[in-house]
Amino acid sequence: KYFGEGPEASKKAELYREELKQKDRNSSNISIAKSNLGSKIDFIQMIKSLVSNKNIEIIDYDRDFVDLVNEKLDEHQSRFISDLENIADETNDTSLKKKILKAEKRFQKLLKEKERAEAKAEEEEKKREEEERKRKEEEIARKEAEKKQKKEEERRRKAELATLKKEKQRAEAELAKLKAEKRAEEEEKKRKKAESEAARRKEQITLFKASETIEYKDLRDSNHIIGVYSDDISKKILLFKRKLDRGKKIEEIDLISFLKGISLTNEKISTLTRFTTKANYLKAALETDQNIVGFITNYINNIYKSLYRIKIDIINEDISFVKKFQPIELSVAIDNILSNSRKKGAKKVIFEFNQIRKGLEIRIRDVGLSLSTSIEDWKLIFEEGVTTTKGSGLGLSHVKRIIEEDLGSTITYNPDYKKGFELIITIKK
Q1: Which of 26, 86, 156, 259 has the lowest tally of Cβ within 10 angstroms?
Q2: DSSP conformational letter for 274
């Protein structure tokens, strides 16, 4: 109990007790006992008990066991000093009393130093705690300031983003407005140009039609077709003459072919000229009741190909479609369509026959140049005076008249065909 009450005091006492058990208990060396605080405490208690007994007189004892002046007893030393004073009084030991007095003074000095040190430590602890409190408060204030600054920065950033977004939207709206205005301006220019072109073409067509009489139209149509065939005859004669000029030997088969071609063309001209003085001369030719697909196929293979060197493919030529028609008119229509393809320098022409619910569909398409972009409305190509080549603009108008008036059918242009030029003829049953 010399070290007080509580777990800390018990822990300190237990350390000295363990030291006694380990070193002093079974040792025969007296120096170990003299150097051990626990042994000294036990010895002092034993002497104290003896001197308090009136029946016992202490003659002498080993002073080394009561020499506690150099021991570091701290605040517990006062109890040992009190015990030693009791022993010194009972034994009348002046030397021990002096040592005790000196030790007590030293203890008081140490105690005051300890108190001052503790006070200083307490003050420093308070100061440290105050500094820690201030530091925490400053840290809290700093975090609050940072939080506030961050919040303010976030608000400012959002405001800037909102401003930028509005500015971007305004710029996009302005750009869209400019584009729309430009597009509207271009559309207006295009519309005015189209209107101007359409008005010009309409004026041309109107003037062209206004100058005609029925008799003149018939004569003009006839002359146009005769001119086409006459031009073909001239070209064949010129080609034949060039062969003669080059001194090339003319084979009998070539001569017969040349004469046959000219004869066939001339016969067509002769047939046409018989009706040039009659109104609606195209209706004057005799009608026939036969397979139109077979007639067109035979005409192309046996007549047209003998007159012109142009590649013509026929698809579904085995289809049979019997209807009344005038061969000369249908021949003129085919000639005009193929003439346009030749003038455009088409690589080849394809005739495709298809049976449909309404009757017979004939697709005639060439591989080459498509419809000129200068003709914005494809319906104009069937008007008289409008040309898709370098001709007079009468060919397709003839074709339209023949298809509609003689055959009671329709002809249209296919704008979706991009590899050249395609016409679709629908012949009703």
Answers
A1: 26
A2: T
The HSE-up count of residue 248 (CA atoms within 13 Å, CB side) is 13
For residues 348 and 368, give the distance between their C-alpha atoms in angstroms, rounded to a whole number: 8
Judge contact between 2 and 79, C-beta under 8 A. yes
Q: Any residues with CB less than 8 A from the CB of 380 and at least 6 apart, and which? A: 201, 386
The residues with which 361 forms a beta bridge, in sequence order, are 354, 426
For 336-405, where are the E strands, in sequence order? 348-356, 359-367
Residue of 312, 325, 316 whose CA lies nearest to 405: 325
In whole angstroms, what is the distance from residue 299 CA to residue 327 CA?
A: 10
Distances in Å between the Cα of 199 and the Cα atoms of 193, 206, 377, 389, 394 are 10, 10, 12, 21, 20
- Tokens 């820690």 appear where? 132
Q: What is d(CA 2, CA 83) in angstroms, rounded to the nearest whole number?
A: 11
Q: CB–CB of 360/292 below 8 Å?
A: yes
pLDDT of residue 73: 57
Give per-residue pLDDT as tens, 24-70. Answer: 778 888 888 887 777 888 888 888 889 888 898 888 888 877 776 55
How far, in Å, CA of 262 to CA of 239, rounded? 12
pLDDT of residue 230: 83
Mean pLDDT across 217-232: 70
Contact between residue 336 and residue 300 where contact means Cβ atoms under 8 Å apart = no
Cβ(348)–Cβ(367) below 8 Å: yes
* Distance in angstroms (rounded) separating the CA atoms of residues 70 and 15: 19
